[in-house]
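To whoever picks this up:

The nightly regression suite flagged Alcohol dehydrogenase superfamily, zinc-type as changed. Nothing in the input moved, so I suspect the structure step. Input below, exactly as stored in the fixture:
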Amino acid sequence: MKWWVKSWIGCIVWSCGECSSWLSKLEQYCSKKIPTVNGTYQDGTPTHGGFSSAMLVHQNFVVRIPEKVAPEQAAPLLCAGVTAYSPLKQFLNGSNKVLRGGILGLGGVGHLGVIIAKAMGHHATVISSSTKKKAEALEHLGADSFLVSSNAEEMEAAADSLDYILDTVPAFHPLRPYLSLLRADGELMIVGAVPQPLQFDAVELIRGKKNLYGSFIGSMEETQEILDFWAEKGLTTMIEIVKMDYVNKAFERMERNDVRFIFVLDLAGSNLLEC
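Regenerated output under the current build:
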């Protein structure tokens, strides 16, 4: 076991260590993995993640936080950040080519997708159903362009213009309009967990030589990579730090989509006896 001054835990605390996913360094796809939150240890004890006062974690699921990255900045990267980073890294596959990417949805994962895409040198287009977040996307996050998906003229003009789309929307939405934005060999990467079956046109995929796939968080190797990437590039996550006594209000605000862009719960700075 290695000891670090700042060591952190991501989305998983244990996996089998022997399946094909594990051997391929894709342990997040292990069918026997134990998630950090809402999971169950082998002895039946539930996992409560950051709400725990103590936690048992296999050493393979601990990462090192670079000195240049503050704890409150690192926390969102361990889940939302690597969720955006992993598919973008896989799509690049080691290439330094300048790509034109679309980020569908501008929430916690989406805003990190914009930051990561820009830091990778891509041309980033934010895709949203209205103009409500246009100023934030362009002025605060540094997106290159903003596309309103409910505007038929804008969507038609943007057809065949993107190399990839990172779809972060966790609610039902038809995929066909977004597939039309992709060039040949373009990829629609789904990371938003939509509970309903998705709708898409197989003909659009076939005739346009387009790809559709899902991605689930990221590997531990990729989790360490994004932390190091954040330190190297000097990037900043847009967060709001809240104490434990505010957590219920934070959940209410999340339901209203009233957060820009991620809440970080400060347990160390909270008086838990008063909560």
